[in-house]
Amino acid sequence: MRASTFRARLMTMLPVAPPFLWIALFLFAPYCLLFCYSFWSVNEFQIIQRHITLANYLHLLTTPLYLTVILRSLRIAFSVVVLSLLLGYPLAYFLAFHAGRHRHLLYQAVIVPLWVSYLVRAYAWKVIFGNEGVLNTLLLWLHATQHPLGFLLYSPFAVIVTLTHIYVPFVVLPVVASLEKIPRELLESSSDLGARPWQTFLRVVLPLSLPGVISGATFAFLLSFGDFLAPLLLGGPSSVMIANVVANLFGADYNWPLGAAVAVVILLIVVAILSVTQRLERRWRTA
Amino acid sequence: MEDSVTAHRRPVALSSFAACAYAFLYLPIAVLILYSLNRDGVGGFPPRHLTLDWYAMLFSDFAMWNAVGNSAIVAIAAVALSMLIGFPAAYTLDRYDFPGKAAFQRLILLPLIVPGVITGISLLLLAVGSGLRLSLLTVILGHATALTAVATTEIFAGFSKLDRSLEEASADLGANAWQTLWRITLPLLRTSLIGTALLVFTLSMDEIAVTFFLIGRENTLPLEIWSRLRRGATPEMNAISTLIFLFSVAMIFVSQRLIGRGQGGEQTAALSEALVTGAAE
User: Fold this and answer.
1) Where is each ABC transmembrane type-1 domain found (chain A) (predicted)?
2) Chain B within 8 Å of A266 (Cβ-Cβ)?
3) Cis ω for the linkage preceding B46 (within 30 of 0)
4) How far apart are CA A120 and CA A117, in angstroms?
5) A6 domain residue, yes or no
6) C-alpha to C-alpha distance for B120 and B213, rounded to whole angstroms
7) C-alpha torsion sign, points A122, B269, B122, A69
8) Given an 8 Å threshold on Cβ–Cβ distance, is A22 in contact with B148?
9) Residue B143 and residue B212 in contact, taking contact as beta carbons nearer than 8 Å
10) Over 80: is that where the pLDDT of A234 sits?
11) Contacts 24+ apart (CB under 8 A), A54-58
12) How many pairs of residues across A and B have Cβ atoms under 8 Å apart?
């Protein structure tokens, strides 16, 4: 009897094993290694020294450049979230309440760009924004400007527009989901009780859709914050983001321990933002 | 009186705003496609002399097709691995309660929300630490790790739509756990699993942030494009991007059909919510 219950228990634990081992080996161990590296250093011959030191973190704290870049990344991510919400919330509202017969197709039309190649979409904006790009030559052709507008490419502007384009679907989908959860009777009773449409929206719809807004905004914020490809492709020196610093330290600048320390800082910021939004969400739900 | 809430009437302002949002999502790609046919190259308005020359050039570009082959190898292996890990992970999350379940879920979904650069370099450190030389193998491991999160959530969505009574009936009729899994659960999940596999395949074909740090000598397709883009955009890049776009759209559309069966993509929203709120309870 006892042997068979043991076997039964073993059977139930069996499916946990492969994902658990995978996580341990390819997520947990690499993060631990990252953490270790951040306390090591390189000597003048660029050989890694495995003595524990706080030098990397001290360097990060005492060099204002890093703080500047982190703040810039947060600012860019924040702009992306604001633009994504301004564009995405009305779209989600439209999909949830007014899309009509073609609702399904219109919904799919938001999901597809969610998954479609990052590279293709970022490249499309390079084609549009370039000095010889479509937008500038269009403006010249229309005689709207005499000279190509240089600020379009290689600027934070280009990075923000591109990242907004890429992460809007991440905002739309959770907002649609939370809007659809709102019982229609609630909207009807609100208008029966004499509320104007905008009052219904502000007092009923908006508060009830906030969980979706929060999770979508968190996604867009964190993914934009850690992006390094859009700045490389479309940004100039004025739009270097913190993930670019990591990529450089692991590439041409070759200082892995310092790069690891920057990565740990990014990871801490990500975790901090996640836990704040989680708390916000939970409080909202219980309120 | 007339402006009381009616879900049936379409507000013009909102509809036109939605049209603009769709334009923002799709117009850049339309421009990209149009200029893949422009003889005078990337940019220049208006586009003149439409031609297929750039596609012809692309088809005789050996390095590019070699990269496509590498990407296909990586994607197939990444699909196999992420399904093998994602299925039991989704099964576990759906069926069992155990201490640390929330942490387990959080960890396995982490690559969805942690920037690719972190996943990339931490796996690079693991590869270097274990003496593994950078090659397509390390890329495969990176993709599998990053995409298991997607596979798990999509399969989990399939599980939560499953009609459990059939499995109970199977158990009542004397089938053991494996027989029920093999004869009832898997067939019921078939379309959802195929859809997930297609999605993971497409994402792997497109992956660039993690690959960036794990690539050896052999380039995958996105990395090949990336390294050429650094030298400057060419219409050939437009042509290959157009093909990638069309391929991805077709694959994703089919995959969402299979996964969602009419309510496509709800799971994607549920996924992000679950991740942010940690709500597996």
Assistant:
1) 70-277
2) yes
3) yes
4) 5
5) no
6) 5
7) positive
8) yes
9) no
10) yes
11) A56/A257, A56/A258, A56/A260, A56/A261, A57/A261
12) 296
Joined together, the tokens standing for residue A104 give 């399904």
Asked whether residue A82 is domain-assigned, the answer is yes
The answer, yes or no, to whether ipTM is higher than 0.95 is: no
- In this predicted model, what pLDDT tens digit does every residue of B112-123 receive, in sequence order? 889 999 999 999
CA atoms within 13 A on the CB side of A78: 7
Find the CATH number of the domain harbouring A122.
Answer: 1.10.3720.10
Residue B252 sits at φ, ψ, to 5 deg, of -70, -40
Establish if A12 belongs to a structural domain.
no
Q: What share of chain B is helix, strand, coil (3-state, %, to 5)?
A: 75, 0, 25
- Does residue A25 sit within a domain? no
**Residue range of the domain that includes A224:** 35-286
- In this structure, which amino acid lies at residue B176? N
Q: Which of A126, A127, A172, A202 to mutate to test the interface with B (most CBs of B within 10 A)?
A: A127
Q: Between the CA of residue B197 and those of A197, A212, A251, B156, what are the distances in Å?
A: 44, 27, 33, 13
Dump pLDDT digits (tens) for B208-228. 999 999 999 999 999 999 999
What does DSSP say about strands A48-49 and A41-42: parallel, antiparallel, or unpaired? antiparallel
Say what the pTM is.
0.90
Range list of H helices, B96-115: 101-113
Pair of tokens at residue A37: 């590296």
Tally of domains in chain A: 1
